[in-house]
Amino acid sequence: MQNYLAIDIGASSGRHMVGWREGGEVKTKEVYRFPNGVSERDGHLTWDVDALLGHVKEGIDKALDQFGAPDSFSIDTWGCDYVLLQEAAAVWPCHAYRDGRTESVIPAVHEKVPFTELYAHTGCQFQPFNTVYQLCDDLARGRLEGITDFLMAPEYLMWKLTGVKAKEYTNATTTGLVSAQTGEFDLELVEKLGLPARLFPRLQQPGTAVGEYQGVKAVLCATHDTASAVEGIPMDGEQLYISSGTWSLLGVKTPKPLTDEKSMAANYSNEGGVGYNRYQKNIMGMWIVNRLRDELCPDKPFPDIVAEAEASAFDGVVDANAQAFLAPESMKAAFDGALDTKPQSVGDYFRCAYRSLAISYRDAIRELEANTGRTYEKLYIVGGGAKNGFLNRLTEEATGKTVIALPIEATALGNLKIQMER
């Protein structure tokens, strides 16, 4: 029996999932799970990518022990973040997207290339952590001197395993430097921004083989985890989706990018899919819920938290996408500062968080439907948030859509699907 290995790494944890076909369905088994998270180094938030590499190798060993050699393996992670290289030497640190290092350079970037022009070229929504701003910060600080490559997080891990440097399309579209028209790096933008052209080779598509590790073929999946998640959703036609994790990624498949003024004003992004465009928006997700739990009740199980939120009558809401909630020292204080009436209990805080998320989904869907000129009936939710029945009910009430919650490992399934169908 052929089997395949998906290594799916998110902002808070990673997992190794072995998958195989059985009776017309894809079956999976988790063989290894490991923690992930940012750490502070010299006043900046960073990733310990080499620690992740150690976990990746350990999980592969466990998969080999339990299932024998898979037909192939692949790795997906979050987008935007990367490792700089001088030939075969990594240049640390690998900054995390929640670090605020780009704030000072963004105005200078927009002086060189106004955001209206950036968006017209790439269709990439504005986020202060977009790779384009991170690289321009590196340029301004002299960190690109002598740099020969930059590899996105999954590309770095694949290179360390196989010795092959390959830049994959779906993750590249999170950089803000890929042309919406050609699907390749936009070298005109690269030149205007003063970035070294040598860092931007041709892109590889999902399904491309890129060497071997321990005799097992390495294949590029859609290495941006949201792209793999969308591939993993068993969707009935073209419908709305939310990949609900640290972020909630809400969107719809479209044949081509939409880079018009309405899409730019609503800050919708166009990112690569497997044969289609993902027209989507980053919305605050389980980050605010998880941070509240860490601060208010770290030992309380989520079912108990949800039950208290359901029992609460607190009716206050916040703008879940406000800057105040991106990386506050205290999430509780951020909620307190945004509300006229302060929550009085743990249940109040979580009810407020869940209602605020549902309202943010509603507002984003209204924008999406206005921009695409289409009305959608169904909303598929996958990822961690799909397990929360209370939030799903609030979302259905707020949006008026039929919510189909699939508490499945959609990202791993999409990763496996690409390997199986290549």
Structural class: alpha+beta
Going by CATH, the homologous superfamily of the largest domain would be ATPase, nucleotide binding domain
* Regions with little confidence, pLDDT below 50 for 5+ residues: none
Q: Indicate the CATH architecture of the largest domain.
A: 2-Layer Sandwich
List keywords for this structure.
single chain; 422 residues; alpha+beta; Nucleotidyltransferase, domain 5; 6-stranded mixed β-sheet; 15 helices; 23% strand
Structure explained in plain terms:
By secondary structure, the protein is of the alpha+beta class. It has 2 domains: 4-223, 2-Layer Sandwich (Nucleotidyltransferase, domain 5), CATH 3.30.420.40; 233-410, ATPase, nucleotide binding domain (Nucleotidyltransferase, domain 5, 2-Layer Sandwich). It is 37% helix and 23% strand. The chain has 15 helices and 18 strands. The protein has a 6-stranded mixed β-sheet. The protein has a 6-stranded mixed β-sheet with strand order 15-16-14-13-17-18, with helices on both faces. Strands 4-5-9 form a 3-stranded antiparallel β-sheet, with no helix packed on it. A hairpin with a 3-residue loop joins β1 (4-9) and β2 (13-22). α1 (49-67) crosses α5. The longest helix has 27 residues, at 346-372. The chain is globular. The mean pLDDT is 96.
Present the secondary structure layout.
Elements: E1 4-9, E2 13-22, E3 25-35, E4 39-41, E5 44-47, H1 49-67, E6 72-76, E7 82-86, E8 89-91, E9 94-95, H2 106-112, H3 115-122, H4 131-140, E10 149-152, H5 153-162, H6 169-172, H7 187-193, E11 209-213, E12 216-219, H8 225-231, E13 240-244, E14 247-254, H9 261-265, E15 269-272, E16 277-284, H10 286-296, H11 302-311, H12 331-338, H13 346-372, E17 378-383, H14 389-399, E18 402-406, H15 410-421
Parallel strand pairs: 1-6, 6-12, 13-17, 17-18
Antiparallel strand pairs: 1-2, 2-3, 4-5, 5-9, 7-8, 7-10, 11-12, 13-14, 14-16, 15-16
Helix pairs in contact: 1-5, 8-15, 10-13, 11-13, 13-14
